[in-house]
Amino acid sequence: MKKPLLYLFTAVLLSPMALSQNAVTKIKVGLGYLPDVQFAPFYLAETSGAYKKAGFEVEFQHGFTNELYPLLAAGKLDYVVADAEDVVLLRSENAKAAPFKYIMALYQNVPNALFSKAEKNIKTIKDLKGKTIGIPGKYGNSWTSLQATLKAAKLKESDVKILEIGFTQLEAVVANRVDVAMGFINNEPVKAAAQNIKLNVILAAKYNRAPGVGVITTDANLEKPELVKAFLAASQAAMVTTINTPKIAFEASKKYVQNLGDEGMKVLEASIGLYQSPFTQAEGIGFSNPNGWQSAIDLLKSVGRLPKPAGRSTFYTNIYLKNVQAK
Known about the structure:
The protein folds into two domains: 4-109 and 210-314, D-Maltodextrin-Binding Protein, domain 2; 112-206, D-Maltodextrin-Binding Protein, domain 2, CATH 3.40.190.10. By secondary structure, it is an alpha/beta fold. The chain is globular. The chain is built from 14 helices and ten strands. Helix 7 (140-152) links the parallel strand 6 (132-135) and strand 7 (161-164).
């Protein structure tokens, strides 16, 4: 537990790319949404010099994913860290316009969670009937997770009242504007606990079994496999260090995220809980489960959002990853 630098650099230093490449390759990485401690492994790989040792000069670009994906498709970004289901939907709609592939998992499961004030007594998905549910909008993983949850509860949309409230979920729940909201296990519940607000939380991953956030690139970038492998090796190693020594990753994040305090550390700890699964224990940190991809395809088809599903291998691959484990 006292050797974070060893964990961080082993995969990179043993890479033929790191040993032989003299030229620096400039790459741009899009990170969905705002600067946030949830991206700590990528911040750590950059600030520690791991990307540099692998032969890269990395620039991060934060933004909403609907802004980042066109840049990825146009070659103005090399990687985007975003939701797995985006690859399924976008590539299925137009593979030429969105030739995307998911190549490393940050989260093994979707982080979505329904949360409500404890006094509302909403403890199971059956309790959602007749309730007002807040959601950022009818798009993205939050919407898919709500659809999956209602489906599992055998509820129709007409059995509840759905309000699109943007990213104000905690405020809406606290102010009783909604009975329950779809948020993220590593966000609103953490912030509520810091304010001594008691919540009931229902994890959506039980009903939406898709892989979570991960690294996405294009078919064109995959034509340079050694570059991809070197970038992912450094990123995997940084994930391992983040798991083993969160404080190191937390400190690295301060360069990019303002005003990080105790609450930010709690967010990071909750995020780290999503990095590992029985599948990663067998295959390695960063690998995504084929069964999760099939579940994502089946779910999106069942709710009418994927009219012509392709095989799961169309959307992801694990072949550029190494089997590395946290200690």
